[in-house]
Amino acid sequence: MPLTPEQQAEIEHSRSETRQTRRVVAEGLETRLYEAVHCLDHGFVRVVDYMGDDSAIVQAARVSYGAGTKQARDDRGLIRYLMRHRHSTPFEMCEIKLHVKLPIFVARQWIRHRTANVNEYSARYSVMDREFYIPAPEHLAAQATSNRQGRGATLEGEEAAEVLRLLRDDATLTYDHYQQMLNQTFAGETIDETRAGLARELARMNLTANVYTQWYWKVDLHNLFHFLSLRADAHAQYEIRVYAEAICEMAKAWVPAAYEAFEDYRLGGAQFSRAGLDAVRRMLKGEEMDAEKAGMSPAEWREMMAALG
Amino acid sequence: MPLTPEQQAEIEHSRSETRQTRRVVAEGLETRLYEAVHCLDHGFVRVVDYMGDDSAIVQAARVSYGAGTKQARDDRGLIRYLMRHRHSTPFEMCEIKLHVKLPIFVARQWIRHRTANVNEYSARYSVMDREFYIPAPEHLAAQATSNRQGRGATLEGEEAAEVLRLLRDDATLTYDHYQQMLNQTFAGETIDETRAGLARELARMNLTANVYTQWYWKVDLHNLFHFLSLRADAHAQYEIRVYAEAICEMAKAWVPAAYEAFEDYRLGGAQFSRAGLDAVRRMLKGEEMDAEKAGMSPAEWREMMAALG
Amino acid sequence: MPLTPEQQAEIEHSRSETRQTRRVVAEGLETRLYEAVHCLDHGFVRVVDYMGDDSAIVQAARVSYGAGTKQARDDRGLIRYLMRHRHSTPFEMCEIKLHVKLPIFVARQWIRHRTANVNEYSARYSVMDREFYIPAPEHLAAQATSNRQGRGATLEGEEAAEVLRLLRDDATLTYDHYQQMLNQTFAGETIDETRAGLARELARMNLTANVYTQWYWKVDLHNLFHFLSLRADAHAQYEIRVYAEAICEMAKAWVPAAYEAFEDYRLGGAQFSRAGLDAVRRMLKGEEMDAEKAGMSPAEWREMMAALG
Amino acid sequence: MPLTPEQQAEIEHSRSETRQTRRVVAEGLETRLYEAVHCLDHGFVRVVDYMGDDSAIVQAARVSYGAGTKQARDDRGLIRYLMRHRHSTPFEMCEIKLHVKLPIFVARQWIRHRTANVNEYSARYSVMDREFYIPAPEHLAAQATSNRQGRGATLEGEEAAEVLRLLRDDATLTYDHYQQMLNQTFAGETIDETRAGLARELARMNLTANVYTQWYWKVDLHNLFHFLSLRADAHAQYEIRVYAEAICEMAKAWVPAAYEAFEDYRLGGAQFSRAGLDAVRRMLKGEEMDAEKAGMSPAEWREMMAALG
């Protein structure tokens, strides 16, 4: 369960209140505000705040005085033009703030995207919760044999059972010892009066990388799309892709025209190299091509042919 | 007049509409939203959108589930603690978007602050307005004799009159020729059918640096404070300080507790060097000090003594 | 002439000295170091310093202990792989510092690339040189009729002559008045003892946007490639493209393998949308396609067909 | 031992070669280049490359044509002026690249400084080394009772012994299981032919946060100083401070004048608030002050009085 009843109540309370504003409002996102979308076994992602909507992109591109929109149709066309020609600054005019609960090893991958604002739960200051990620059996993938960075078939039988047992036992054991070293239960109660307890900033080093942490993460729409193009991709690690896909749904509700353009030109598109373009040209003229004739490496050729279905 | 009647009407229209939102609302800023605060002779700055308020700073610092505030009193204390200890990330959780009309030479100084999002009116694509900054007589400062970067006394009499005349005549002349080269009036009408008209991206080079441009500028609160600490400072050039001071008022209305902490710890504070601290220590013990005894340069000593009143 | 004899002598002096270093050295760039490559009528760009070479990209990608290179052949393959898959962080491990002299209107476009370090010549502090850009007759383009942002045919005859005359006269006149307001000649000599002279930070507003400024600009290779992909592109304004093309030559001499990959995958490549990929697929199966069938706008279709030759 | 004999040999090899360059050379840093400075029990930090030296700061501040230096004395004065007045851009003209081996929990704190370039050893792609940080007994601090974020007295006797035992046993156990799940020894040899082995990107989640990772980290001098001002501070966690202090020595060897200014104005200086300045003023006039009279919180008063010795 990613949320305690108290947390759920706080969220419900935030959702129950509405206020008047003169700002632009994204209706599609308002209904989802604050709500936690579950990810993995104990994680979630939820929108905590946002600024702007599709019209804000148009308004900035035109540096206009009033609301962005004259006609929704023109706006969509302009947004597609901006996306196609990589005019990224108008997309930076929208901003979103997320609250994310995620395993540490996922957080370490996520934070590599530097153009964002982050406030993480501090394990120097606070005690971490006893929650860790254990993959569902269907996500217990073997190492890929062809690709050093990827996943192969799903583990089965005794091997799978043992992996699950090890992950669960080790996370439990190291967390137990974490508490023991702190000489505290989670509620902060001292266990043994004769002991001082190790500093939190040190004890945390005993926790495994599947322990859950939390952060507030704020990013503009241009950088969010860049994040999603890498992390909602089929080659991204499953455990971060789950979050990226949940955020895709949020973006779609928030800025539908921009998201559609993003899907058409980025997620669903492909970049061709000079040699790739040349190969396509020759194929369109009826020539039989292969990697060698095209002057491409086998891997590059395979990737291009996959993009061409 | 910085605004045409049409622009004023668009702003009034935006101000007249309110919507329901579940987001945090900064009441103090809502009443000022969209409104243009006049700066210099034809410029303005206005808030077009914002995200968060004081409670958002606290909420992020605590990575909490509900609204930031338990008690306003605790919040203020936490915000002051964060400001004092330069914990800057919680302040990055608030964001503001401004629409600014400003002379090009001010824009060139402003843009040196890189951690912000900008969309500027494009002189490649559009025709610039015939509006340029002419200083009021009381701001017609002479070059400082002591400080190569500063302003001295105000120019007077015939010299002042001539400077004003030159600025006005040259801006008018170069703008006239800009239009002539474009072979267009501002409304885009062709003047002489036998001429093609120079490309806008070239014709703009004939305009002087006091011509007004416009942009949307979006920044987080931490970086806004950094901008204000440099540009609302007494050593900043008057023409940018006017904007910074107008933005200070907006920030005060938006995040009153954070702004108060900013005033106390940044705007109204001072940094002392190792030598300066040592000198103060010795003065507190009754010793008579001067620059030489303190091992400080005369300029540094003067700056420190000024901070100490 | 972009350089005075004194400046040329300083550059020659810098070029004449060599020192011992344990750092990686890019032989191809060493021979060009400090040398000014002329751009436009009075501008230049020159490499003032650099860090790393192709091997540094490989070394960072492998987080290795020794020099990057085992075999130049493997390195080239890895660099191409990184470029193709947009693994941008290893390219950030190379850095270059340029000294650029450029017209203000070009500088204003250039500075929109924010992920770089900049130190510009200060017109608050110093007096600007009397140098301004006047286009060569063959670059005196008319406004494009089809594209609001572009250039059309070259102006000719009387219209061209008048444009050149206006540009030259106005830049000269406003510079003369700039000096008059400062009450100084360029060497800093006072002209009229009875006058105080306007502050430099104010007088500069009388200068036109074709006056030359200078800056030091430092950027990592990933962000340099992004800059070049936009500014060395055929759609970039000619006056900035000249600089970008000069920098392309420098990059080629500095990191030949990375530059080759950049040319193949970025400069010479093209991004296809979802609809574009689908259209190519159908064309490869022999179907006759057009914009409408493909569900693409005429402009997008035209752009894709241009990429396919 | 932080380095294997092979790694040590690679480093020695890099150190043994020198090349000719026309670039600025920082003699003080050349002698230390590539050399690993040991930090904690298995970590290190070493300079892999650098760009610029003190003269480069001066050169950029003056936007000059030749080398920065006329007279070393003037340069030092200018550098101090720039530091005192927070003119940060000239310091951004120097860049340094470090190779760091550090425990994951230190890396997580370090990466919060976002304005830097990073390439980390990939645990998706490669197998992590069996090396983890175990604090020396004298750094086994208890949780501070007064400060939720700090360290108190050193643990002793049985409690200390047990903490060390737990840390060591848990890191060993989880690493053993990591290898078992991978079905590989470190050299990549399969242990049990009947098993597929869990994907590396999953198995890594079983490792504790004291396991060592590595990265290349590249940063400009301004941002390096900001990092050092926070992490070489007495309030920083010991485990990151060790690295920061080692880097301070490197910076001192690289840019001695800039480092001296940094020490005088940042490390050894202090920021006073408006209320603090007022209190000092009154104390200098002979008034007896305390927190209440000064209108400061007890904590703030205490911090100020500590700065004043």
Q: Give a quick account of the main beta sheet of chain A: strands, pairing sense, barrel closure.
A: 5 strands, antiparallel
Strand order of the largest sheet of chain A: 2-3-4-8-5
Per CATH, the class of the largest domain in chain A reads: Alpha Beta
Mean pLDDT of chain A: 93
* CATH architectural designation of the largest domain in chain A: 2-Layer Sandwich
How big is the Rg of chain A? 24 Å
Low-confidence parts of chain A: none
Structural class of chain A: alpha+beta
| Assembly form of the protein | homotetramer
Reported by name, the CATH topology of the largest domain in chain A is: Gyrase A, domain 2
Order of helices and strands of chain A: HEHEEHHEHEEEHHEHHHEHHH
- Largest interface, and how many residues on either side? A-D, 57 and 57 residues
Report the strand count of chain A.
Answer: 9
> Into which percentage range does the β-strand content of chain A fall?
15-25%
Number of domains of chain A: 3
- Per DSSP, the total helix count of chain A is 13
The shape of chain A is flat
Helix content of chain A: 40-55%
Distance between the termini of chain A: 41 Å
Structure, explained:
The structure is a homotetramer of 309-residue chains. The first copy, chain A, has helices spanning 5-16, 27-30, 54-62, 72-84, 104-110, 157-182, 200-203, 221-231, 238-254, 256-267, 274-284, 291-294, 298-307, and strands at residues 19-21, 37-39, 43-51, 95-103, 117-120, 141-143, 151-154, 212-220, 270-272. In chain A, helix 4 (72-84) runs parallel beside helix 10 and helix 9 packs across helix 10. Chain A starts with a helix and ends with a helix. Chain A is of the alpha+beta class and 309 residues long. Chain A contains 13 helices and nine strands. In chain A, the strands form two sheets. In chain A, strands 2-3-4-8-5 form a five-stranded antiparallel sheet. Chain A has a two-stranded antiparallel ribbon with strand order 6-7. The first copy, chain A, folds into three domains: 1-133 and 212-269, Gyrase A, domain 2; 136-209; 274-307, no CATH class. The interface between B and C is large, with 57 and 57 residues. Strand 1 (19-21) of chain A pairs antiparallel with strand 1 (19-21) of chain B.
